[in-house]
Amino acid sequence: MQGLNFHRGQGDGGRPAPVRHVPSRPAPSQQPRPVRKDPAPSRLAYRLNRMMLRPLVRRLVHVGLPAFLAALVAGIWLSDDTRRANLTGGIDAIVDKVQHRDEFMVRMMTIEGASPVVDKGLRAMLPVDLPASSFDLDLEKLRERVLKLDAVEAVDLRIKPGGVLSAVVTERVPAVLWRHARGIELLDKTGHRVASVTAREVRGDLPIISGEGADRAAAEALALIDAAGPVLPRLRGLERMGERRWDVVLDRGQRIKLPENGALQALERAIAIDRAQHMLDRDIAVVDLRQQQRPVVRLGLEAQNAIRRARGQPELGPDGKPIAVETTEQKSANGKKKSG
Amino acid sequence: MKDLYQGQRAMRQMRRQAMQRGVIAVLDIGTSKIACLVLQFDGPSQFRETDGVGPMAGQSNFRVIGTATTRSRGMRYGEIETMAETERAIRTVIQSAQKVAGVRVDHVIACISGARPASYGLAGEIPLPAGKVGEGDVARVLAACEVPDFGRGREVLHAQPVNFALDGRSGLSDPRDQSGNRLACDMHVLTIDGDAASNLVHCIRRCDMELAGVASASYASGLAALVEDEQELGAACVDLGGGTTGVSIFIKKHMIFADAVRFGGELITQDIAKGLRVSHAVAERLKTLHGGLEATGRDDREMIELGGETGDWDTDRRAVSRADLIGIMRPRVEEILENVAGILDAAGFDSMPSRQIVLTGGGSQIPGLDVLAARMLGQNVRIGRPLRIQGLPHNATAPGFSSAIGLSLLTAHPQDEWWDFDMPAEHYPARSLRRAYRWFRNNW
C-alpha cells in the first residue's frame, strides 16, 4: 500500500525539526463548529404534523381559521359608527366620481317627430335636470312614462355618443271625433284617445261618432264611414246604441239602424236600395236593418199624414198623436189668417 | 402459542382495517437505511380487462403514493440497539413519506431483518372421520403439527402451511373438500428473538402507528427479487444488506427456509475505514464509488484520492490504488458468501431441483459480485432487481429496496398463515360454551 507509506526523510539520522515560531501558528478557531441539527422531528412536531394531515383539521386551519380571523377583524373594525360611515361615504364618493365622469354625462336632449305640445311635455317628464349622468337616467322607466301620454304612439329613447339623449317620437294621428257626455275627444284609428277638443269646428274634416263605448268600436265606425260612399255628403255621424250596434245618422233626421253583426253588409244593402229606389230621398224617418231578412222602414210624419188624409183619418201631430178636428179647423183657420 | 395466535390475529384485523381505509405504510427498518412506502389500495377494478394489464403478481391493485428514505440510526445487525434513535429515524421517514403522499397514515407493516431467525419444518397428520376434508380439518391439521422447543424468548414470525398430503397424494395446495382418510401437512415456521421483535413493536407504537403486520426481511426480498418461475422451481434469494445478509429459499411459491448472516455491507465499510485509516463516511464513499471485487492490471494504476478532514495535510492528501481497495473488500465479501454457502448447505439447497441463486440488496451492487458468487455458490447466479410496482419513483427501484417492495407485495397478497385459519374448537373453550348456549337457546 504505497499510498499509506508517508515516512519522509528516512535514514541517515534524520533532519532537525524546523524552528517554528509560536505566534505564526494558526490560532484555533474561536467559534466551535455549529452542531448539526437533528433531522428527526420532535415528538410534538411529529404529532402536530400528523394532526394537520387529518382532512377535517386541515380544512379548519386552511379555510376556517383565516375566514374566522378575517370576519373578526372586519367585525371589530366595523363596530365603530364613524368608521362605518367613512367606509360607506368613501364608497359612495368613488361611485359618484366614476358616474360623473365626462364620458357618462348627458348634456342635451333631441326630440324628433313630436309636435310642440308633446315636445314640451316630454322635456318636462325628464326626472333630472341636464346635464346629468347617464347612470341617473333610467331610460326604460322614462319610456314607460312617455308612453302614458295619449298623443304618443311609440317612443325610441337612446343615449348617443357625445352626451345626447335622443328621443324619436311617433305621434298618434287623429282619425275621428267622439262626442260623449263629457265633451268631445279626438281618437286615432284604433280608438285610442289623442286629445280633447272644445268644439266640433276645431276639426271639421273628421267624422264624428257618439255614444257610450263608441271609442272601443272606432275601427268599425271608420270602416262604416268609408263604406258610406254616396250618402257621405248627407252623413251627420254614427251613434253607438247600447254599446253594441251602430246607427247611421243622416241629415233631415234620417237614421239607418244597423245590426250588431254584419253592420257593413247591412249598410251596403241600404245604399244599394237607395241607389235603386231612392229610398233615402223619400220621407222616411228610420230604416231598420236590424233584421236581415226584413228591412223595416218607418215613414216620416208628412207621408203618414198624406196617407191618413187620403183615408179620411185625423192627421197626426208631431207628438205622433191624432189631432182633434176642431184643432185642425182652428189650425187651418190660423193658416188662412196668416196666408191672408 | 395461544398468545401468539391472538396477537397475530389482532394484527390481521388491523390489516383489514387499513385495507378498508385504503392507505397503509410499509416500513423496512434496515441497518443502513430505513425506507417507507405509502401504498394506496384502489380495489381490484383499477384496470379493465381490455387494458391488457393482468394480475401481474398481484401488484396491479395498489400503487405507491409516497416514498421516503432516511439513514438508519440506532440499529445494529438488523436489530434495534438504541430505541430512542431508531424511533427518531422512524418518525423522520414516516413524516417525510406522509408529506410526499399528502395523506395521514395510521397503519404500518414492518419487516425485521436480523433478530437471529430460525427456520423449522413441522409436520402434522390427522385422521379424517368424515372421509372428506372439511373447513375445520385444515386448522386441525395445522394445530396437530408437532411443535419443537423453539428455545427461550423466541417468537413465531411466520407459520405457513407449505404442503398438504392426503392419503399419500402429496403436493396439494388446497385440500378442502377432497376425499381421503388421513390429512397430513408440512408447515414452515420462522422464529425470531422475542426481545428484538418487541423492541420493534414498541418503537412503532411510540410513533403513534398501529402495527398491521410483521414479516421477515429476507422473505420479503425473496418475494420481490425472484421471478415467478424461480419461486415455483426453487431458488434462493440472498439479500446483502447493511448489517445482515438474509437468505431465503423458495419452492412451489412457498418459502421453505430463511436465515440471516450477521455480516453485511457495514462490515466492509468498517474494514475499509480500518485498513485505510479513514473516517467511516470516507470509507462508505470509497466503497460505493470505487469498490469492486475483481482486480485487473488497470486497477493498479487507478489512484483514488482518499481525502478527509483531519486537518493534517499529509493524511488528507493520500491516494490508494483501486487494487488496494479491492484487496480490502474481497476477503470480507468472500467471508459473507462463505457463510451464505454454509447456510445453503445446512438447508439442503443442493438437493433442490433448480439451484438458482439471486443476489439482491444494496450489497449486490458491488461490481464483480456475480463472478465471485458464481465461483463460490454455484453456476446459476444472477443479480436481481426488485419487481416494478406502480407509482414507485425511479430512485426507489434499486436492489436495496427489494425488501420494502417485497413487503408491499406481501401486503397486497398476504400468504396464508396458521393464524388465518380458525382455531380448532378444543383449543377454544369459550367458543364451545357459546355453542352449547346457542344449542340450548335454539332447542328449548
Protein architecture, described:
The complex is a heterodimer of chains A (340) and B (444). Chain A has helices spanning 43-52, 55-78, 81-99, 116-125, 139-147, 218-228, 263-277, 301-311, 325-339; strands at 105-106, 108-112, 132-133, 152-160, 164-171, 174-180, 183-188, 193-197, 208-210, 235-241, 245-250, 255-257, 284-288, 296-299. Chain A has 340 residues and is of the alpha/beta class. Among the domains of chain A are: 102-171, Ubiquitin-like (UB roll), CATH 3.10.20; 176-299, Rossmann fold (3-Layer(aba) Sandwich), CATH 3.40.50. A 9-stranded mixed β-sheet of chain A has the order 8-7-6-9-10-11-12-13-14. A 3-stranded mixed β-sheet of chain A has the order 2-5-4. The longest helix of chain A has 24 residues, at 55-78. Chain A is rod-shaped. With 444 residues, chain B is an alpha+beta fold. Chain B contains 14 helices and 18 strands. The longest helix of chain B has 25 residues, at 322-346. Chain B is globular and about 95 Å long. At the A-B interface, helix 1 of A face helix 2 and strand 16 of B.
Key phrases:
heterodimer, A: 340 residues, alpha/beta, Ubiquitin-like (UB roll), 9-stranded mixed sheet, 3-stranded mixed sheet, rod-shaped, disordered C terminus, B: 444 residues, 5-stranded mixed sheet, globular
Number of strands of chain B: 18
* CATH homologous superfamily designation of one domain in chain A: Cell division protein FtsQ/DivIB
Beta-strand share of residues of chain A: 15-25%
Main sheet overview of chain B: 5 strands, mixed
Major β-sheet strand ordering of chain A? 8-7-6-9-10-11-12-13-14
CATH architecture grouping of one domain in chain A: 3-Layer(aba) Sandwich
Give average pLDDT of chain B, whole number. 86
CATH topology of one domain in chain A: Rossmann fold
- What is the structural class of chain B? alpha+beta
Side by side, the strands of the main sheet of chain B go: 3-2-1-6-11
Assign the CATH class of one domain in chain A: Alpha Beta
Low-pLDDT stretches of chain B: 55-59
What is the N-to-C succession of helices and strands of chain A? HHHEEHEHEEEEEEHEEEHEEHH
Percentage beta strand of chain B = 25-35%
